[in-house]
Amino acid sequence: MGLARLAALHGVATSYQPSAHRTLQVPDDTVVAVLAALGVDARTPDAVRTALEAHETAARRLLPATLVSWTGPSGPEPPPAVAGLPPGTRLRVETEQGPAVEWEALPAGPPPDDPTPGAAPQAGAAPPPPAPREGWAELPLGVHRLGVRTPEGREDSATLVVAPARVPQAPGRTFGFMVQLYSLLSRRSWGMGDLGDLAELAAWSGRSLGVGFVQINPLHAAVPGTPTDPSPYRPSSRRFPDPVHLRVEDVPEYAHVPRADRARIDDLLDRAATLRDGVLRKGELIDRDAVWQLKKQALELVRSVPLGPGRRAAYCDFLAEQGTVLEDHATWCALAEVHGPDWHAWPAELRDDPRSAAVERARDELYDRVDLHGWLAWLTDTQLAAAQSAAREAGMPVGIVHDLAVGVHPGGADAWAQQDAYARGMSVGAPPDAFNALGQDWGLPPWRPDVLAAGGYAPFRGLLRGLLRNAGALRIDHVMGLFRLWWIPEGREPTEGTYVRYDAEAMLAVLALEAHLAGASVIGEDLGTVEPGVRDALAERGVSGTSVLWFERDWAGTGEPLPPESWRENCLATATTHDLPSTAARLTGEHVVLRHRLGLLTRPLEEERAEAAVEVADWLSYLARLGLLPEGAGDEEGEIRAVYRFLLRTPARMAGIWLPDAVGDRRPQNLPGTWDQYPNWRLPVADAEGRPVTLEELAASPRLHDLVAAFRTRTAPPGARLS
């Protein structure tokens, strides 16, 4: 009983529901291990009693570690936690903008020494202190420091997040492309898609097609290795992008590489062309490591060109703005070149504290390499900004939609630099469910909710600010993680984990604040098992959801396809995602055959194919009844167009076209449950025959233009060219 109470006080679940009407108990040893990762000893009954007493002592504080004040029609609203402060308590808010705001909490009604409410004050009398509501009304948006002092002299302080009630919304209805950037090669790519290709895609699709956004995969910095993990969802750092995405020729200093080095640059360009042709013409897989080796050599040659005064000033401003966060990231990159990509295997004196004397000495010794990685981060940031500028200049109301992965690699830069913020010995995953009886372990260390709260959510805020600086919108992978995450103790199976709860109100407040400051909307990936109330809470704060056509059925009633008018408005509506079969594969059943070939089916092939065929036939029949399939049954291109025509019938504010669908690609970019069996994250966009398609060929594709035609006539943003 004591363990359950202690767990509840720290947001650790002792039971969970994998499905309706079914509750499973979490093993006690799992609860004990998770509490230990939160700094709470619960190994014995005596330890549990001691921990409960310590929590009761901490609970006597006047304020929690972090408070949220949502901005209403009349300004910021007082947080509920301050309602119980004694009358006469002085409140002082040190705002992040500089000025302080101070006032006194008064009891309800007139002060007892004022017998004539509403009477004018006597001449020369000091004005009465502002009422509690008036003090809050003066507070600006931001993350501030609140201090309180009671009449008895008790003092306390807390972080105060003053946030807008909702994140910004995409202007009007719009449609866009969704693509994994590495898969989109042009005739100028170095073996994988890059930021130059992204800018070209945005400029062309915005100007010529009326596209309102381009959603891409996370561009987070990867953990270097041989081979590098190609998954964009298990990065070294979410705070900085990976320079592998740079277009080398777009770096201004490239044009001024000394004549003596031009031959080396030309040789690298030739080798890059060989990589590109291997992918586009010879069926080779995208080789991120090979691309980076060439780009790294070329960029080091470019770096030999001195920056002009203006460029030097811009670089210095970037370094100053990013501060120790970038310094730590660049230091990790430099140390990884010497000691390997997993900091757990580094010399002991370099592991535990980025601020240690040993790390400072190593940073000084590796100064040139540290500066190189800072320079690469700056270049990547400038090209990300250029891509967003190209999108906006092309008339896109949203522009580039960036993606935030749910976590980071345990051996990478963020886990090293922010060790206190991550739970040691824990991994994030998913519990068993109807689709995966064994659960999932994603190998990502979770943030500690207690450390986040104590630090005013600074790591989360900094992460969001970095991602939003060059984004028109942000997609958050597994957005349910703002509320709770499934923690798995090291060495245990995913079935032996438990949920740990986060302060969703504080997380949403920081998200709303940073999105407001950036003028960007937010999309939450809320597919799969979602606990009750989460979608409502997200919608209340203006966070859009994600709705995939094949999953939208009347599950509580007939089980039939959900009518378009019943879809939610505040969502990104699409036909598929990077983790799901392409529309062509689903229509033809090729996704079932692929899973059978790889040994992933749990039932006989014919059973799986029959079930998939019934699902598709059900949807196609419904689309035909709605008049969305004039081409008739059996026309694959027409059926794909019908699927996307249906999305236009819904009230969804955003509709996403999976770019490979536009050319009939049958291969998924990622097949969950596989590693070496399938080339996840290494395939280029291809046509129905599996032939890779370049960006230039996409722009001229009749099939793509036929698909987009319906969107151009229905949802083109104001000012877009339609010819």
From TrEMBL:
Key words, A-Z: Carbohydrate metabolism, Glycosyltransferase, Transferase
Region of interest (Disordered), residue spans: 69-88, 103-137
Alphabetized NCBIfam families for the sequence: malQ
The protein's name in its UniProt record: 4-alpha-glucanotransferase
Family according to the record: Belongs to the disproportionating enzyme family.
Record organism: Streptomyces agglomeratus
Source superkingdom: Bacteria
Sequence ranges of Low complexity compositional bias: 116-125
